[in-house]
Amino acid sequence: MYAEPIFLQPVFKDRIWGGTKLRETFGYQIPSETTGECWGISAHTNGPSTILNGPLKGLTLDEAWQKHRGLFAGQEGDDFPLLVKILDAKTDLSVQVHPDDEYAQRVEHEAFGKTECWYIIDCEEESELVYGHHAKSKDEFQAMVDNGQWDKLLRKIKIQPGDFVYVPNGTIHAIGAGTMILETQQSSDVTYRVYDYDRKDDQGNTRDLHIKQSIEVAMIPHEDAHFQPVENKQGDLTVKKLIKESYFTVYHWALNGTAQALENPMYLLVSVLDGEGEIETQNGTSSFKKGDHFIVPSTVKKFSLKGNASFITSHSS
């Protein structure tokens, strides 16, 4: 029986808004000075992670999903459902929106729409996100876009490190400059840009906007999602359930010592935000450190942790 954590090699993405903090903060070997995204746990065709250890070493996560479904609780579906990223926004991301499953499948032939959530790893003082808008109808939304009334249209919220933001499909949103987040999302790469600050790429071209699609999929009027984090202790591990919704359940874990006989809910996605330590399963002990991404497969029913570290963990709901 396969009973050890599955460590993954991230995939990095150059972005017009990216920088170098993925290297400075996590020690990653990034491909450029404008690296915006680390796809830490991904089976998406646009950037699948590669397994680094064990009998499946060298396979992509998608290949493991297709060939070894028993590691993932036998979950059904052609596509691995979740994608975990770390984003470094040196400058503002475009204002954007994502579709639901039905629209993504019908229009984009993508397996999933995109509901996501963000844990704020770091941000500058007085940082803001675009989250929602002030239009009361699609006609009012279109009129504000046509007239370039972005300050009137877009709703902004203040953030600080440690904040958690839930972004259901249909939510108008944008990550602001100087912000680093860990994003847990459905495994989708469909994004519709509403506004991109009229900036140009290195070829002098503006990026495409998708106003028609954005208005079709956007939540109008905007409504905030409501959720209540719940915290408990398991040994020296503080577990905060940040959200449980229809696509994923996401936690923040803070380890300061030892936590034994932790139950694995199905298969657990783990990203190490800080610190280091060891995970022990029935097959032995593996070390982890800041910046590591791994999966505890469903064949590991219980495991123990030792060290001082913080994590974002998640699983399908």
From TrEMBL:
Residues 7-108 form the Phosphomannose isomerase type I catalytic domain. One of its GO terms (molecular function) is mannose-6-phosphate isomerase activity. Pfam families: MPI_cupin_dom (PF21621), PMI_typeI_cat (PF20511). The keyword Metal-binding applies. Residues 239-315 form the Mannose-6-phosphate isomerase cupin domain. Belongs to the mannose-6-phosphate isomerase type 1 family. This is Mannose-6-phosphate isomerase. It comes from Fictibacillus marinisediminis. The lineage of its organism: Bacteria, Bacillati, Bacillota, Bacilli, Bacillales.
